[in-house]
Amino acid sequence: MAENLYIDTRGNVTEPVPFTQAVINGLAQGGGLYVPQNVPSLTLEQICDLAKLPYAERAAAIYKLFDVDMPAELVDSLMASTYGEQWDTADIAPISSLDENTHILELWHGPTSAFKDMALQCLPRFFSASAQLLRERGQLDHEFMILVATSGDTGKAALEGFKDVDGVSIGVMYPDGGVSDIQYKQMATQRGSNVQVWAVRGNFDDCQTGAKNTFNDEAFAQKLAAEQGVALSSANSINWGRLLPQVVYYISAYAQMVADGKVEAGAKIDVCVPTGNFGNILAAWYAKQIGTPIDMLLCASNTNRVLTDFINTGTYDISDRPFVLTPSPSMDILVSSNLERQLFELTGRNPQAIAGWMNDLREQKKFQVDKETFAKVREAFRADSVGDQECLDTVKEVFDQYGYLLDPHTAVAYRAAQNLRGENPVLIASTAHWAKFGNNVYRALHNIAAGDDLPAEVAALSGCQLNELIQKETNASAVPAGLAELDDLDIRFTQVIDGNTAAIEESVVAFVESLK
Ligand SMILES: *Cc1c(COP(=O)(O)O)cnc(C)c1O
């Protein structure tokens, strides 16, 4: 079997690398993103047969299909621990059907109740195993520290994924006072022997800029490598090792729908995804390439509608676009980094075109794709954006109609799906449990306008208490244990640091030294 090597979207990688190296590198040399040389395919029968396997084995089968350069038994055991006891259902990603043609793919049954777990339970295990394999091949001689700047969800999912993983430690920075009570407690109570959490004086932008400057400080990297034997890595959502686990659940979901009699084998479905960095919807596109009978991909945006405008016009423009905070904060993104991979694929893999557009984006804050590429975009995608109030109204409407509580991100997708759908059944990617966003779910259920204050007695509740209240009022399914018990756990991390590069670097060194 020929090895499937990874090339990059901008044509700078002269020697394609194997999966392990692509995972360890994250970003390709020259700033492009890794993509596999070959996208494999499955027959309809092979896809439907996956339903006979437990989820971990479905995932292992897809990884092997991509010819990852790891022994098959290793892939099997990593997947078994990725999709194991830490999930609250053996189905891992169950499908709740609102009606015959509207299906919700619940991607939040993992340890942090957000869909990031689907990939961030998987990537750290493959990252650690990849590093180990590269060490054995004499291609690596150091350990890693993952540095993450987070506005809430990603940080917790990354901490939970990397905790107690061999050869890797993780430090997470969040804006002090800038995350919800639930998000704060999720991070500040984190367990594990290789983890650190810092509150940063400033906003998310300060955290992100601080992290970026630290990554780009070559002298610091050399010092860290020489004195500590450690390299910094980001493990962010452009890593191919985060995308591949997401491809799995779309293929798996289709197989499951057929097995459950929700769709006839071979009948097409549409998939609607609440989109930020374009990773989740790109994964659905790859699932379609592999052979999953997916017709249209429906891209849902919130008020930060840069992707919707791009899909509808062919121009990606952030030159005069304000960044808006919405009830679906994990989609508050202006630079959608995984779109680069999608355009690479839709241009028939033309790295010159991609390099040019990314250059335009850097220099002019916008780019426009050519006519042929735009036609390909229109063939594959439909897009719509959903405003803040519309999002909350949708949470209420769906609850009243079906007794099912959506989180605000999923509500954006549900509304967009209603606006865009045709005849096909729709599979909606549900990216968070409602209890991660209790404030806005409460607003929705009590007809309090988006952005308005909660009543004083409600605002005084902790996140856990508010969720309990909502649960009682709605009789919705129980709040996941990991969220429900947060008030009872000891706060472990209280350190507040400045957001400048020197302060972050000093904290990184102190943390790495503390692990010895
Ligand atoms: C990250 C995230 C998204 C956006 O996913 P992308 O892959 O960045 O498009 C949507 N909803 C939630 C809850 C998220 O955490």
Number of strands: 15
Number of helices: 23
Low-confidence stretches: none
> Which small-molecule species are bound to the chains here?
pyridoxal-5'-phosphate
Strand order of the largest sheet: 3-4-14-9-10-13
- The radius of gyration computed from the alpha-carbon positions, rounded to a whole number of angstroms, is 22 Å
Structural class: alpha/beta
Write the layout of secondary structure elements.
Layout lengths: L5 E3 L10 H7 L8 E3 L7 H6 L5 H11 L6 H11 L12 E5 L2 E5 L9 H5 L2 H14 L6 E7 L3 H10 L5 E8 L5 H8 L6 E7 L2 H13 L1 H11 L1 E4 L6 H20 L9 E6 L4 H12 L3 E8 L4 H8 L1 E3 L21 H8 L4 H14 L1 E3 L2 H10 E5 L2 H15 L5 H13 L5 E5 L7 H8 L10 H4 L3 H12 L6 H4 L11 E3 L2 H14 L2
Parallel strand pairs: 4-14, 5-6, 5-8, 6-7, 7-15, 9-10, 9-14, 10-13
Antiparallel strand pairs: 1-2, 3-4, 11-12
Helix pairs in contact: 1-6, 3-4, 3-11, 9-23, 11-12, 17-18, 17-19, 19-21
The structure holds pyridoxal-5'-phosphate (PLP).
Short key terms for the protein model shown above:
516 residues, alpha/beta, six-stranded mixed sheet, 46% helix, 15% strand, binds pyridoxal-5'-phosphate
Verbal overview:
This protein is α/β, with parallel strands linked by helices and 516 residues long. It has 23 helices and 15 strands. The chain has a 6-stranded mixed β-sheet, with helices on both faces. A 5-stranded parallel β-sheet has the order 8-5-6-7-15, sandwiched between helices. Strands 1-2 form a two-stranded antiparallel ribbon. Strand 5 (143-149), helix 7 (153-162) and strand 6 form a beta-alpha-beta unit. The structure holds pyridoxal-5'-phosphate. Residues 114-116, 153, 237, 274-280, 330-331, 409, 431-432 line the site of pyridoxal-5'-phosphate.
